[in-house]
Design brief:
The protein has 254 residues and is mainly alpha-helical. It is 76% helix and 3% strand.
């Protein structure tokens, strides 16, 4: 039934992960042939019902044979075309895996805060932002997840010894979310055939994107400008003093 519906409603183009794909002429021709035979069969049956004509067995056999041939031809052409499109749709996953490996090697060779790592991180972040824009259906699907915010967070995590520092907490959150997203693709490399080419249908990926976008927004608000980070640290410091002096307030914060 799905094959028949695909031929009758065949659209010559559709979108996957924000990219436009067009069915080849061979598939469209096969779809038209199947639809024509199906309508011819329908017209014949309708004529019998209206006029009460007796079944013409040879003609029925011929028409069913044409239907079977058209069905098989369209099914083969259509599925082969979908397989090609799905392979193309998965290329962005392979691109992320390649860029992640490049970042791993660069960080190991030069360190996380090096200029080389910043450049590699920017390349990976750019592709992840594109994926977020098409697959993150549970949140905003932002395209502007700039790598400079992530670089700042990595720098703070590398240079801050006080793990309770407000800036460190915010930075660690987005860095952890970024690493979790990277781990998803590292694991996906072992089972690429299990990745749905329509990336928004991969629950694990969407969950990782949601956490990354959410933590990135917080980091962008407080780590983007030095004054914002200073204000955050001052506010948290005053709240901590207030908790020590006011047991009731402290209890509210638990």
């Amino acid at each position: 039934v799905d094959i028949l519906e695909s031929s009758l409603e065949c659209q010559d183009c559709f979108w996957v992960n924000g990219d436009h794909y067009k069915l080849c002429e061979k598939v469209l021709h096969a779809a038209g042939s199947l639809a024509n035979v199906w309508r011819e069969l329908g017209d014949m049956l309708a004529s019998w019902l209206r006029q009460g004509n007796r079944c013409q067995i040879p003609f029925v056999k011929e028409l069913l044979g044409k239907l079977d041939h058209a069905w098989a031809h369209f099914e083969h052409s259509y599925i082969c075309e979908l397989i090609k499109i799905e392979e193309k749709a998965r290329r962005i996953v392979l691109e992320v895996i390649e860029l992640d490996w490049k970042l791993c090697c660069t960080e190991a060779a030069f360190g996380e805060v090096s200029q080389e790592s910043r450049q590699a991180r920017m390349q990976l972040s750019s592709v992840l932002a594109h994926i977020n824009s098409t697959a993150n259906t549970r949140r905003k699907g932002r395209t502007d997840l700039r790598s400079d915010i992530l670089d700042r967070a990595v720098e703070i995590c590398s240079t801050t010894s006080d793990k309770s520092d407000a800036g460190y907490v915010v930075a660690k959150s987005v860095v952890d979310a970024f690493h979790a997203l990277r781990r998803y693709f590292q694991q996906a490399e072992r089972c690429l055939e299990m990745i749905n080419p329509y990336l928004e249908n991969n629950a694990g990926l969407v969950a990782s994107l949601v956490e990354y976008e959410k933590s990135w927004e917080v980091a962008a608000r407080y780590l983007g400008e030095a004054s914002s980070l200073s204000t955050l640290r001052l506010t948290v410091s005053r709240l901590q003093v207030l908790r020590l002096s006011e047991p009731a307030f402290d209890a509210m914060c638990e």
